[in-house]
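Quick start: what a row looks like.
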Amino acid sequence: MGEALYSEPGTPALQAIFGQGASIASASLGVVEVVAALSAKRRASEIDLQQLDRSLGDLDDDWSGFIQVPLSAETVEKARALARDHALRGADAVHLASAVMLCQRIQDPSDRVLFVVSDHRLKKGAPAGASSWPGITVWDPCDSAAPPLP
């Protein structure tokens, strides 16, 4: 979501995901993190106020089309276990737990969850944390241009 609003390594590959018409989901925490990241870029003078406002408007438009995984008590318990078992940071554990919760609710066995991650610590912990859920594929858009979609 955030990389589609400003250019970073992995942006073209991530934009390809958006262009494929796949359903996009995110933990509800994700929108807060993107707003914080954009605001930090503004504070560091990497983007100007108009770019910030435009990006926040684009975020609002994008977010309304996302499947939003709420931070439920069940997600928090899963995140706690993942943080403990895989030494994940809090927000990272919430994102992975949200992917797990989404995977557990998928009705069609041919559907898959593509867990997009660029954070190096999360990338190390996510495969171990996701290994118990065969419907989750972990992918870093900085590592390859084409996501491993079924």
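That is the whole record. DSSP finds six helices and four strands in the chain. The longest strand covers residues 113-116.
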